[in-house]
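#structure-requests
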Amino acid sequence: MKKPLLAALAIVASSFGMANAQTKASPAEDLVKQASFYIGFYYNGSAKVPYWRELQKNMVADVQKVCAGDAKCGYDKGREVIVTYMKSLNDPFTRLVTEEEYETSSNFAEGKGPSTATIGIQARELPGQGLVVLEAFPGEPAFNADLARGNLIKTINGAPATIKALQAAEASAKAIAVEYSAAGAVKTASIIPILVNDPRLPYRATIGKALMIRIPHLYGSQSTSVGARVHSNAARAVRDNAAGIIIDLRDAFSGYDTEALLAAGAFIKEGGFIYDRRFLGQDDSYKLINNGGSVEGTPEGGKAVLAGQANPATQYTGKVVVLVNKVTENSSEMLAYFLQKAGRAQVVGEATAGQLGVSGGALAQLINNDIIQVSEMRMLNLDKTPFPMNITPDIIVPEDLAALAAGRDVQLEKALEILGAK
């Protein structure tokens, strides 16, 4: 994801949407008019999208069919039409973002923590059994209560553990009674959700003879840099004489593309990308300089400026494996791509989310309070060839939640095997 640059244009477009809201059209139609303007005006992703006037005409016709002449037809019907159109693009980056998602990513970009109270885990449902913990973030309540990756949460406050049950319990901000299994032993914990002020930067762990760098996201701020943290962790692998580095990008969401490039600079000396926008004269290019220790950005027709720096920088030359899965998205896909393309890492896991070939950001809040995100740019290599839409791993190892709950991380096992680091 690019760093936000279009606030002024977003305000203009929001004013346009509100002007339409003053007509006699239904609320659903007003919402569709506003969203179709954003998509038709800004979109420059992989799909073919008409310019906004034609797109608006087509989408308004669709919502009028749904509303069937009801002048009070609500936002929910308009939202259905918008989501249906977005899905038809087959571009998962272009979507409606929840307010919580937007606020959390904004917080990370300001060096803060998640926007709502949390116990600090990522989990996925294992049908009929409960929630498999994918990550317990260091320093957060679940981690402090000794929960860890691979634990199976069976009940939450006495009820079957599901994502919805966890979210509802966290929203209550009261102590949560958790029953879970760890290495076959049944355990219980009482965990109080809190507002976390930690931006969840990359952290390291020694796994066998390898050093693993876990990267939850790629957002940076004025006070924090994911890319610089990766450089420092790579330096630690050199000091520890590790057999290799495992970069864990599983379930890592987006961030800033420049941070992905700077992180890659710990392993490659050259590389970069071009933002290909819909409008002439608006393309920006970014490249690694100083042997991978810095990122330089150049607006089309403008002068180069420093866009990121690791101080001190590291150039790690040992073996590298990158772990990805179907939830690895956008900027996180980009980091894996830079290393795979340069031949510096073997990628292990599943095909990624499919947001690699585009970039953009949350443009504005719609009149129903949804936030619209649009692929504003196509991603090009410095030689102007397009990025693929996703990462195909060098070695495909599907996620196995049942094995993880039983104590085996099959993707991590493959990484250790490649590095000879078990």
